[in-house]
Amino acid sequence: MSGSRSESAADLATFAWIDETSRGDHWLLAPDDHCLFLGEYLPGRGWGAGDFNNLILDFKRSPARIRASSRSAAVREFKERAIETVAGALRRGFGRAAVETALTFVPMPASKRPGDDDYCDRLLRALNCAFEGWDADIRPLLRHNGAMHPDHERRGERLRRADLMRLMELDGTQLMQPLRPVVALFDDVLTSGKHLSVAKARIRARFPDQALIAVFVARVSRVRHRC
To answer: Residue 10's closest CA among 99, 82, 62, 77?
Structure first.
């Protein structure tokens, strides 16, 4: 499990842009999608695949899995450390002036809804922790109108984009104040780009000219390692 390993991963890393060498790994990204990521996640490789795998696995631990663990207190602490590590990377990665004047940060909606026993607000918590004391605009602008199983826990086919479009919607209560010039959509792992595609479509349907970027803790790497 992680601890100091996750902290060292984020301490040494800086955010980078998805470019033409990596865009093909994420087949639903549009040419005009501007995406930042901190590190690479190797799916199916587990805890032994390096610091970023450890960080992501800790960060994404569900409340149900934590409760089910025989070491739930220790596992919960690993998750808290991961949230703090991600928050530290965000604070280092964005200048205070941009955070306070140019950016509205929007966490991607969780697969479970608030009030569900397995609801996890790690993205919102990481943003609030990252920019504590700054005049940041952080809003859960997007929500799901029903619960769903997250893609990484599905044994069969992943949720189709059309189905996700029916689930994801704007929360009008979060629009009492104007958005800042750039919306920064925040998520933990970039896989196909499906969730970004749907989130962008929902926001642009209401605000056609809104500038958008996406910020990910990690991107899935499709590199195949040879023996």
So the answer is: 82
